[in-house]
Design goal:
- The two termini are about 30 Å apart.
- The chain is of the alpha+beta class.
- A hairpin with a 4-residue loop joins strand 5 and strand 6.
- The protein has a five-stranded mixed sheet.
- Helix content is about 25%, strand content about 35%.
């Protein structure tokens, strides 16, 4: 999947596309959310580590921590992923963990800072 990346260089914003190799099980989660009508985006360590690898500044060989931010509420996540094991890992923050056959994937509901 290609993602735009904005760089600020001497008061100019430069846009480039980089490729992030998303594991198939994580892509299935993203697709399920989007097919159910909930926008969903990769966030957190996986994005950071992919960017660092792209820039040649990371020694992380295999990225295992995949987090998603979505418009889906925790109860909606439970419905979308009814065929998966879903764990309420931070309901106060809208975070649920979906267990795929390869890894846990945390999904957090969009929120404003401080909520």
């Amino acid at each position: 999947m290609q993602f735009p990346v904005l760089h600020k260089v001497a008061d100019e914003v430069v846009s480039r596309q980089i490729r992030i190799d998303i594991p198939a099980d994580v892509q299935v989660i993203l697709d399920a959310l989007q097919n159910a009508g909930y926008p969903a985006y990769l966030v957190g360590g996986s994005v950071r580590d992919n960017l660092r690898q792209h820039l040649g500044k990371s020694s992380v060989a295999l990225i295992e921590d995949w987090d998603i931010a979505s418009a889906a509420q925790p109860e909606e996540l439970a419905q979308v992923f009814s065929t998966y094991r879903v764990i309420a890992t931070g309901e106060a923050f809208g975070t649920m963990t979906v267990l795929t056959d390869k890894r846990p994937v945390q999904i957090t509901t969009f929120r404003a800072d401080g909520t």
